[in-house]
Protein backbone atom coordinates (compact mmCIF):
# COMPACT_ATOMS: atom_id res chain seq x y z
CA UNK A 1 0.00 0.00 0.00
CA UNK A 2 1.41 3.39 -0.95
CA UNK A 3 1.82 5.96 1.82
CA UNK A 4 0.22 8.49 -0.53
CA UNK A 5 -3.10 6.66 -0.20
CA UNK A 6 -3.02 6.72 3.60
CA UNK A 7 -4.54 9.40 5.82
CA UNK A 8 -2.43 11.64 8.03
CA UNK A 9 -2.59 12.78 11.63
CA UNK A 10 -0.72 15.22 13.84
CA UNK A 11 1.81 14.51 16.57
CA UNK A 12 3.83 16.69 18.95
CA UNK A 13 7.45 15.60 18.54
CA UNK A 14 10.39 16.46 20.81
CA UNK A 15 13.63 17.00 18.84
CA UNK A 16 15.69 18.29 21.75
CA UNK A 17 15.41 20.34 24.91
CA UNK A 18 12.48 22.79 24.52
CA UNK A 19 12.27 21.93 20.83
CA UNK A 20 8.73 20.66 20.15
CA UNK A 21 7.38 20.33 16.60
CA UNK A 22 3.71 19.96 15.65
CA UNK A 23 4.13 17.50 12.78
CA UNK A 24 1.94 15.78 10.23
CA UNK A 25 2.53 12.05 10.05
CA UNK A 26 1.21 9.17 8.00
CA UNK A 27 -1.47 7.19 9.82
CA UNK A 28 -0.72 3.53 9.21
CA UNK A 29 -3.32 0.83 9.83
CA UNK A 30 -2.84 -1.27 12.98
CA UNK A 31 -0.69 -4.37 12.69
CA UNK A 32 -1.32 -7.86 14.07
CA UNK A 33 -2.33 -7.61 17.74
CA UNK A 34 -2.66 -3.81 17.64
CA UNK A 35 -5.56 -1.42 17.87
CA UNK A 36 -5.70 2.16 16.66
CA UNK A 37 -6.82 4.70 19.26
CA UNK A 38 -7.94 8.32 18.93
CA UNK A 39 -6.26 9.91 21.95
CA UNK A 40 -8.76 12.04 23.87
CA UNK A 41 -6.76 13.05 26.96
CA UNK A 42 -3.10 12.99 27.95
CA UNK A 43 -1.88 14.11 31.36
CA UNK A 44 1.55 15.73 31.45
CA UNK A 45 3.92 14.24 34.00
CA UNK A 46 7.11 15.35 35.72
CA UNK A 47 9.12 12.93 33.59
CA UNK A 48 7.62 14.46 30.42
CA UNK A 49 8.66 17.87 31.73
CA UNK A 50 12.23 16.69 32.35
CA UNK A 51 12.44 15.40 28.77
CA UNK A 52 11.00 18.67 27.44
CA UNK A 53 13.22 20.95 29.52
CA UNK A 54 16.48 18.99 29.41
CA UNK A 55 16.19 16.36 26.68
CA UNK A 56 16.58 13.68 29.32
CA UNK A 57 15.03 12.25 32.46
CA UNK A 58 17.69 10.91 34.82
CA UNK A 59 19.66 8.27 32.96
CA UNK A 60 17.18 8.18 30.05
CA UNK A 61 18.33 10.48 27.23
CA UNK A 62 16.40 11.36 24.07
CA UNK A 63 18.35 9.76 21.20
CA UNK A 64 15.94 10.53 18.32
CA UNK A 65 12.77 12.58 17.76
CA UNK A 66 10.25 11.40 20.35
CA UNK A 67 6.53 11.80 20.95
CA UNK A 68 6.03 12.37 24.67
CA UNK A 69 3.02 11.47 26.82
CA UNK A 70 2.09 8.29 28.67
CA UNK A 71 -0.94 9.13 30.85
CA UNK A 72 -3.78 8.75 28.41
CA UNK A 73 -7.18 7.46 27.36
CA UNK A 74 -9.06 7.44 24.09
CA UNK A 75 -11.44 5.68 21.70
CA UNK A 76 -10.64 2.63 19.58
CA UNK A 77 -11.01 3.53 15.89
CA UNK A 78 -9.72 0.31 14.26
CA UNK A 79 -8.38 -3.09 15.27
CA UNK A 80 -5.68 -5.17 13.64
CA UNK A 81 -5.76 -8.88 12.84
CA UNK A 82 -6.13 -11.14 15.86
CA UNK A 83 -7.69 -8.54 18.18
CA UNK A 84 -10.90 -10.01 19.61
CA UNK A 85 -11.56 -8.16 22.88
CA UNK A 86 -11.81 -4.62 21.48
CA UNK A 87 -14.12 -3.03 18.91
CA UNK A 88 -14.16 0.40 17.22
CA UNK A 89 -15.94 2.94 19.38
CA UNK A 90 -14.81 1.36 22.65
CA UNK A 91 -13.34 3.71 25.26
CA UNK A 92 -9.98 2.58 26.65
CA UNK A 93 -7.13 3.58 28.94
CA UNK A 94 -3.77 3.40 27.18
CA UNK A 95 -1.10 1.62 29.22
CA UNK A 96 2.03 3.05 27.62
CA UNK A 97 4.48 0.64 29.27
CA UNK A 98 4.41 -2.57 27.23
CA UNK A 99 4.97 -6.09 28.50
CA UNK A 100 5.72 -8.81 25.98
CA UNK A 101 3.79 -11.48 27.95
CA UNK A 102 6.81 -13.78 27.63
CA UNK A 103 8.89 -12.42 30.54
CA UNK A 104 8.48 -10.44 33.75
CA UNK A 105 9.79 -7.13 32.37
CA UNK A 106 7.99 -4.07 31.03
CA UNK A 107 9.41 -1.95 28.21
CA UNK A 108 9.18 1.86 28.26
CA UNK A 109 7.05 3.28 25.48
CA UNK A 110 8.61 4.43 22.20
CA UNK A 111 6.44 7.21 20.77
CA UNK A 112 3.87 8.33 23.32
CA UNK A 113 0.35 9.68 23.35
CA UNK A 114 0.73 13.36 22.36
CA UNK A 115 -0.68 12.61 18.95
CA UNK A 116 -4.15 12.49 17.46
CA UNK A 117 -4.11 8.74 16.84
CA UNK A 118 -1.74 5.92 17.63
CA UNK A 119 -1.40 2.19 17.05
CA UNK A 120 -0.79 0.32 20.27
CA UNK A 121 -0.63 -3.32 21.42
CA UNK A 122 -4.20 -4.31 22.18
CA UNK A 123 -3.33 -6.28 25.31
CA UNK A 124 -2.35 -3.05 27.09
CA UNK A 125 -5.53 -1.19 26.16
CA UNK A 126 -8.01 -1.41 29.03
CA UNK A 127 -11.78 -0.87 28.61
CA UNK A 128 -13.11 1.98 30.73
CA UNK A 129 -15.87 1.73 33.31
CA UNK A 130 -18.90 3.66 32.06
CA UNK A 131 -18.70 6.30 34.80
CA UNK A 132 -15.11 7.38 34.08
CA UNK A 133 -14.27 10.36 31.90
CA UNK A 134 -11.23 10.26 29.62
CA UNK A 135 -9.38 12.66 31.92
CA UNK A 136 -10.12 10.57 34.99
CA UNK A 137 -9.00 7.46 33.12
CA UNK A 138 -5.73 9.17 32.22
CA UNK A 139 -5.03 9.34 35.97
CA UNK A 140 -4.85 5.53 35.99
CA UNK A 141 -1.20 5.79 34.93
CA UNK A 142 0.10 7.92 37.83
CA UNK A 143 -2.22 6.07 40.21
CA UNK A 144 -0.65 2.83 38.97
CA UNK A 145 2.74 4.14 40.09
CA UNK A 146 1.38 4.43 43.63
CA UNK A 147 -0.44 1.10 43.55
CA UNK A 148 2.81 -0.59 42.54
CA UNK A 149 4.74 1.31 45.25
CA UNK A 150 2.15 0.27 47.84
CA UNK A 151 2.52 -3.36 46.79
CA UNK A 152 6.29 -3.09 47.10
CA UNK A 153 5.79 -1.80 50.66
CA UNK A 154 3.26 -4.54 51.51
CA UNK A 155 0.65 -1.85 52.08
CA UNK A 156 -2.81 -3.37 51.69
CA UNK A 157 -6.33 -2.28 52.70
CA UNK A 158 -6.03 -4.53 55.76
CA UNK A 159 -2.74 -3.17 57.14
CA UNK A 160 -3.87 0.30 58.41
CA UNK A 161 -0.43 1.94 58.79
CA UNK A 162 0.30 5.56 59.62
CA UNK A 163 1.47 7.26 56.41
CA UNK A 164 3.59 10.35 55.75
CA UNK A 165 3.90 11.74 52.22
CA UNK A 166 6.74 14.05 51.17
CA UNK A 167 5.61 16.31 48.35
CA UNK A 168 2.03 17.14 47.35
CA UNK A 169 2.32 17.53 43.63
CA UNK A 170 0.07 15.26 41.58
CA UNK A 171 1.94 12.06 42.55
CA UNK A 172 2.03 12.97 46.24
CA UNK A 173 -1.68 13.81 46.25
CA UNK A 174 -2.40 10.45 44.62
CA UNK A 175 -0.26 8.78 47.30
CA UNK A 176 -2.38 10.47 49.95
CA UNK A 177 -5.61 9.51 48.18
CA UNK A 178 -4.53 5.89 47.80
CA UNK A 179 -3.46 5.67 51.44
CA UNK A 180 -6.82 6.99 52.62
CA UNK A 181 -8.73 4.64 50.31
CA UNK A 182 -6.70 1.72 51.69
CA UNK A 183 -7.71 2.64 55.23
CA UNK A 184 -4.47 4.11 56.57
CA UNK A 185 -4.99 5.07 60.19
CA UNK A 186 -3.42 8.46 59.55
CA UNK A 187 -2.31 10.36 56.43
CA UNK A 188 -0.21 13.53 56.68
CA UNK A 189 1.89 15.46 54.17
CA UNK A 190 4.98 17.68 54.05
CA UNK A 191 5.98 20.20 51.36
CA UNK A 192 7.70 23.57 50.97
CA UNK A 193 4.66 25.03 49.17
CA UNK A 194 1.93 26.19 51.54
CA UNK A 195 -0.60 26.65 48.72
CA UNK A 196 -0.28 23.01 47.70
CA UNK A 197 -0.53 21.90 51.32
CA UNK A 198 -3.68 24.00 51.79
CA UNK A 199 -5.14 22.31 48.70
CA UNK A 200 -4.32 18.87 50.10
CA UNK A 201 -5.92 19.69 53.43
CA UNK A 202 -9.00 21.47 52.11
CA UNK A 203 -9.82 18.72 49.63
CA UNK A 204 -9.38 15.86 52.08
CA UNK A 205 -6.21 14.32 50.67
CA UNK A 206 -4.34 14.69 53.98
CA UNK A 207 -5.53 14.98 57.56
CA UNK A 208 -2.70 17.26 58.63
CA UNK A 209 0.11 19.08 56.78
CA UNK A 210 3.40 20.76 57.59
CA UNK A 211 5.27 23.36 55.54
CA UNK A 212 9.04 23.01 55.70
CA UNK A 213 10.96 26.27 56.05
CA UNK A 214 13.03 27.20 53.01
CA UNK A 215 16.65 27.90 53.98
CA UNK A 216 19.96 28.48 52.26
CA UNK A 217 21.74 25.43 50.89
CA UNK A 218 23.90 23.68 53.48
CA UNK A 219 27.62 24.29 52.97
CA UNK A 220 28.75 20.80 53.99
CA UNK A 221 27.35 17.28 53.89
CA UNK A 222 27.46 17.04 57.67
CA UNK A 223 25.46 20.24 57.97
CA UNK A 224 22.90 18.97 55.46
CA UNK A 225 22.44 15.69 57.35
CA UNK A 226 22.14 17.53 60.65
CA UNK A 227 19.52 19.89 59.24
CA UNK A 228 17.54 16.97 57.84
CA UNK A 229 17.37 15.31 61.24
CA UNK A 230 16.48 18.55 63.02
CA UNK A 231 13.85 19.65 60.49
CA UNK A 232 12.00 16.36 60.49
CA UNK A 233 12.07 16.27 64.30
CA UNK A 234 10.16 19.56 64.31
CA UNK A 235 7.65 18.22 61.78
CA UNK A 236 7.12 14.99 63.74
CA UNK A 237 6.51 17.00 66.88
CA UNK A 238 3.96 19.09 64.98
CA UNK A 239 2.20 15.87 63.95
CA UNK A 240 2.47 14.55 67.54
CA UNK A 241 4.27 11.51 66.11
CA UNK A 242 7.75 11.76 67.67
CA UNK A 243 8.53 8.10 66.97
CA UNK A 244 7.74 8.46 63.27
CA UNK A 245 5.39 6.87 60.73
CA UNK A 246 4.97 3.26 59.64
CA UNK A 247 5.26 4.11 55.95
CA UNK A 248 6.82 7.14 54.26
CA UNK A 249 6.16 7.87 50.59
CA UNK A 250 8.99 10.08 49.30
CA UNK A 251 7.50 11.73 46.21
CA UNK A 252 9.88 14.66 45.63
CA UNK A 253 13.19 13.08 44.62
CA UNK A 254 14.90 15.94 46.49
CA UNK A 255 17.96 14.95 48.50
CA UNK A 256 16.97 16.75 51.76
CA UNK A 257 13.56 15.04 51.71
CA UNK A 258 15.08 11.63 51.07
CA UNK A 259 17.38 12.21 54.04
CA UNK A 260 14.48 13.34 56.23
CA UNK A 261 12.35 10.38 55.21
CA UNK A 262 14.71 7.94 56.92
CA UNK A 263 14.37 9.81 60.21
CA UNK A 264 10.62 10.16 59.63
CA UNK A 265 10.03 6.39 59.60
CA UNK A 266 9.30 4.59 62.85
CA UNK A 267 11.76 1.92 64.01
CA UNK A 268 11.09 -1.03 61.72
CA UNK A 269 9.21 1.22 59.30
CA UNK A 270 9.53 1.64 55.55
CA UNK A 271 10.58 4.41 53.21
CA UNK A 272 9.25 4.08 49.66
CA UNK A 273 11.22 6.10 47.11
CA UNK A 274 8.77 7.22 44.42
CA UNK A 275 10.05 10.62 43.24
CA UNK A 276 12.79 10.84 40.65
CA UNK A 277 15.11 13.81 41.08
CA UNK A 278 18.61 13.71 42.52
CA UNK A 279 20.59 10.96 40.77
CA UNK A 280 23.07 10.49 43.65
CA UNK A 281 22.39 11.32 47.29
CA UNK A 282 24.10 11.06 50.66
CA UNK A 283 22.01 9.09 53.13
CA UNK A 284 22.10 8.65 56.93
CA UNK A 285 22.54 4.91 56.50
CA UNK A 286 23.57 4.28 60.08
CA UNK A 287 20.24 5.72 61.23
CA UNK A 288 18.43 3.42 58.80
CA UNK A 289 20.43 0.35 59.80
CA UNK A 290 20.31 0.76 63.57
CA UNK A 291 16.58 1.52 63.48
CA UNK A 292 15.90 -1.21 60.90
CA UNK A 293 14.24 1.17 58.45
CA UNK A 294 13.69 -0.48 55.07
CA UNK A 295 14.53 1.76 52.09
CA UNK A 296 12.61 0.55 49.04
CA UNK A 297 12.75 1.64 45.43
CA UNK A 298 9.84 1.73 43.02
CA UNK A 299 9.90 2.30 39.25
CA UNK A 300 6.80 2.54 37.08
CA UNK A 301 4.34 -0.33 37.65
CA UNK A 302 3.22 -3.77 36.47
CA UNK A 303 -0.23 -5.38 36.25
CA UNK A 304 -1.92 -2.43 37.98
CA UNK A 305 -4.27 -0.88 35.42
CA UNK A 306 -7.40 -2.95 36.17
CA UNK A 307 -7.00 -2.14 39.87
CA UNK A 308 -6.38 1.55 39.15
CA UNK A 309 -9.42 1.90 36.87
CA UNK A 310 -11.67 0.07 39.32
CA UNK A 311 -10.48 2.31 42.16
CA UNK A 312 -11.02 5.47 40.10
CA UNK A 313 -14.56 4.32 39.29
CA UNK A 314 -15.37 3.25 42.85
CA UNK A 315 -15.83 6.69 44.37
CA UNK A 316 -13.20 5.91 47.02
CA UNK A 317 -10.92 8.72 45.77
CA UNK A 318 -13.02 11.82 46.52
CA UNK A 319 -12.03 15.05 44.77
CA UNK A 320 -9.48 13.21 42.63
CA UNK A 321 -10.56 15.15 39.52
CA UNK A 322 -9.53 18.41 41.25
CA UNK A 323 -5.91 17.40 40.66
CA UNK A 324 -6.55 18.38 37.03
CA UNK A 325 -6.08 22.15 37.02
CA UNK A 326 -5.38 23.18 33.40
CA UNK A 327 -6.22 22.03 29.86
CA UNK A 328 -4.66 22.65 26.44
CA UNK A 329 -5.18 21.51 22.86
CA UNK A 330 -2.60 19.27 21.21
CA UNK A 331 -1.19 22.05 19.04
CA UNK A 332 -0.60 24.14 22.18
CA UNK A 333 1.47 21.45 23.92
CA UNK A 334 4.54 23.70 24.17
CA UNK A 335 2.47 26.23 26.14
CA UNK A 336 1.25 23.40 28.36
CA UNK A 337 4.81 22.36 29.17
CA UNK A 338 5.89 25.94 29.87
CA UNK A 339 2.97 26.37 32.26
CA UNK A 340 3.81 23.12 34.04
CA UNK A 341 7.41 24.31 34.43
CA UNK A 342 6.31 27.65 35.93
CA UNK A 343 3.95 26.05 38.46
CA UNK A 344 1.52 28.99 38.37
CA UNK A 345 -0.64 30.46 35.62
CA UNK A 346 -0.94 34.13 34.67
CA UNK A 347 -3.64 34.63 37.31
CA UNK A 348 -1.42 33.15 40.01
CA UNK A 349 -3.34 29.88 40.24
CA UNK A 350 -1.48 26.71 41.22
CA UNK A 351 -0.66 24.20 38.48
CA UNK A 352 -0.93 20.51 39.34
CA UNK A 353 -2.00 18.19 36.52
CA UNK A 354 -2.16 19.60 32.99
CA UNK A 355 -4.28 17.73 30.45
CA UNK A 356 -3.79 17.89 26.69
CA UNK A 357 -6.68 16.99 24.38
CA UNK A 358 -7.21 16.90 20.62
CA UNK A 359 -8.95 20.31 20.45
Structure description:
The protein has about 350 residues and is α/β, with parallel strands linked by helices. The chain contains ten helices and 20 strands. The protein has helices at about 45-55, 135-140, 140-150, 170-180, 195-200, 220-240, 255-265, 285-290, 305-315, 335-340; strands spanning about 10-15, 20-25, 35-45, 55, 60, 65, 70-80, 90-95, 100, 105, 115-120, 125, 160-165, 185-190, 210, 245-250, 265-275, 295, 325-330, 355. The strands form five sheets. Strands 3, 7, 8, 11, 12, 19 and 20 form a seven-stranded mixed sheet that branches. The protein has a six-stranded parallel sheet with strand order 15-14-13-16-17-18, with helices on both faces. Strands 2-1-6 form a three-stranded antiparallel sheet, covered by helices on one side. The chain is globular. The mean pLDDT is about 95.
C-alpha Rg (nearest Å): 21 Å
Contiguous uncertain segments of 5+ residues: none
- Helix segment count? 10
User: Helix coverage percent of residues?
Assistant: 25-40%
Shape assignment: globular
Distance between the termini: 30 Å
Largest sheet: 7 strands, mixed
Structural class estimated from helices and strands? alpha/beta
Secondary-structure element string: EEEHEEEEEEEEEHHEHEHEHEHEHEHEHE
Q: Indicate the mean pLDDT.
A: 94
- Percent of residues in beta strands? 25-35%
Count of extended strands? 20
Amino acid sequence: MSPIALPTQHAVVLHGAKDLHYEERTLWPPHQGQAQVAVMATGLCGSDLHYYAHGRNGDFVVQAPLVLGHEAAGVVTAVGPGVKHLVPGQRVAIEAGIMCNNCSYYLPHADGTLQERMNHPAHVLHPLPDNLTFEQAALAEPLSVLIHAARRADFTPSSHPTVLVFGVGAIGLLACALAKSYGASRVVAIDINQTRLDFALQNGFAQQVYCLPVTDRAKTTDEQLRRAKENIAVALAEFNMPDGFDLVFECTGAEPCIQMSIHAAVTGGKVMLVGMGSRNVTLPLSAAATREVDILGSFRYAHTYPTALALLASGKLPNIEKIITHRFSLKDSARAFELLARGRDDEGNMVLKVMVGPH
